[in-house]
Amino acid sequence: WVVPKPRSDKLRLVVDHSAGEHALNAMISKEDARICLDNIHDLGKCLRHARQQHGNVPLVMFKSDVSQAYRRLPMHPLWQIRQVVTVGEERHVDRCNNFGNRAGGKLWCTFMS
Asked: What's this model's pTM, rounded to 2 decimal places?
């Protein structure tokens, strides 16, 4: 289905890989898709470690924000054929990772690592 994009008159495609009798997410075990993201405690630990290693020097911290992170990853052709989106009578092959994919987060974190 589609939903309106925030602060825009454009629409965003919503893909649910958990819907239906033969859902794509059913092919990916929850254990295989599990990830542990960094949190504020991890950041604090890294900052304390940097202070111990380098003393009282200025520390500079930045955060990168990747636009459409999941969509930047192309999927294997054999997975792409499972991501065919039908709109009316037209079919479109979704060649990239999307947010509806159970393993999407792990794929992105693995790539970034």
From this structure: 0.64
